[in-house]
Amino acid sequence: MIKAVRGVRDLLPSETRHWQRVEHAARRVFEVYGYREIRVPIFERTELFAKGIGDETDIVKKEMYTFEDRGGESLTLRPEATAGVLRAYIENGFHVEPKPVRLYTMGPMFRYERPQAGRYRQFHQANVEALGETHPALDAEVIAMLMDFFGALGLAGQLELQVNSIGDRESRGIFVARLVEYLRPHRDELCGECRARIDRNPLRVLDCKVPSCQPIIEKAPSILEALSPEAAEHFDSVRSRLDAMALPHTVNPRLVRGLDYYVRTTFEVLTTALGAQNAVAGGGRYDGLIAHLGGPPDPGIGFAIGLERVVLLLGDQAGAAAPLALLIPLGDAALDRLLPAARRARQRGIRVEIGYGQRRLPRELERANRLGAPWAVIAGDDELANGEALLREMQSGEQRRVALDGLADELVRLAALSDGTALRP
Ligand code: HAM
Fold it and tell me: Do the Cβ atoms of 123 and 108 come closer than 8 Å?
């Protein structure tokens, strides 16, 4: 038997219900903030990611699915969406549109990471970019939208929003030099990974999770003390606007993110519920990246949400919605009457299931219970003769007669009285 590739999985019908709910919440929230959907290719030229994400990042150095196509061109399955969205922005001349240009996209990303709970080699993101505006109010607005997404799913209360500023390129250069100066004498106390990072990508030492590195990281200089006056003012302004929107947040000066394109504001949304994989979403500002990729000097800010992790957090909260009713025809004649009635109910957004008249009543009632349907509609010869069916409340077993012609109306009325789970999402 051929099995799925390690770190890549099927999303089964028992889970897709959660996924639809999460995707629906994302679309609804993004669209009220004025974001429009863009769909970009799953693979791009390798150089786009190398240039966009940064040659020295873990993603580009060790996690990309890169291959040569038959024409000898080096291509890569997208490890993230930002680089592709910016390429599309530049290539399609979006920069002439009124700013900020607000775009979102959703879909699979690919990283060759070590699989574990909440970490996969094919995973999905909902990704947002706001392009062409430097105002700190936009940073706050983007973060507010992210938290509204979690709020829409009832998750905001169990998540922590962390923010930081990693400064402008110039001030960061000065800070990195200071950091390296601090780290060098501690080289032997750091983990192997961090030792290599001192030379390659010193900022990343700050978010190493290895316990033995923590005492050294804790005493490291803070990037916030090295901000240029402009970057510091920008950060203050973002924070005061978060406060004005009553968005609780913690400042984490060690939040440096794993992609090289960030400047100024960075942020992550964290959970304690998923073990080591604690980031549910992350993002930041990346002024200069669009120009770096050959486009106009437009600034930008965005984030991506890890959808697998959101679905894990939802747990059983969004269990597969049960149908409102199982329609049980006892024989072919009844099936001919119930099938059109089922269709009328479905056209009105009511989820019903139907039997095909071949099973006996007790087995069908058992099935209604297993489906979790609160109602069953039973039609046999006696009822049909009067143009009626029996409406049975599964829990109590109470039954009453309903006219077949009015069945769809009756189901709509029952759905409105129930908690709505039988209605379309
Ligand atoms: P990122 O922090 O690399 O940012 O990824 C964002 C989120 O994707 C993470 O917080 C996590 O929830 C999820 N994620 C990442 N890797 C995996 C994985 N292997 N398995 C499951 N989930 C994962 C970015 O990708 C940036 N492009 C975000 C951004 C957009 N910044 C500006 N605009």
Answer: yes
Domains contained in the chain, number: 2
Q: Are 423 and 415 in contact (CB under 8 A)?
A: yes
What digits encode the pLDDT tens for the residues 205-224?
A: 998 889 999 999 999 999 99
309 lines ligand 1 (CB under 6 A): yes
Number of the ligand 1 atom closest to the C-alpha atom of 279: 10
- Whether ligand 1 lies within 6 angstroms of the CB of 308 is answered as yes
pLDDT digits (tens, 9 = 90+) for 170-197: 888 899 999 999 999 999 999 999 999 9
Domain containing residue 341: CATH number: 3.40.50.800
Q: Is 113 in the pocket of ligand 1 (CB under 6 A)?
A: yes
Residues in the chain: 425
Q: Whose CA is nearest to atom 2 of ligand 1?
A: 282
Average pLDDT over residues 96-107: 97
Domain boundary among 285, 314, 343: 314
CB 84 within 8 A of CB 48: yes
Selection from 113, 128, 98 nearest residue 35 by Cα: 128
Which residue's CA is the nearest one to ligand 1's atom 15? 306
Query: Does the model's pTM come out above 0.85?
Result: no
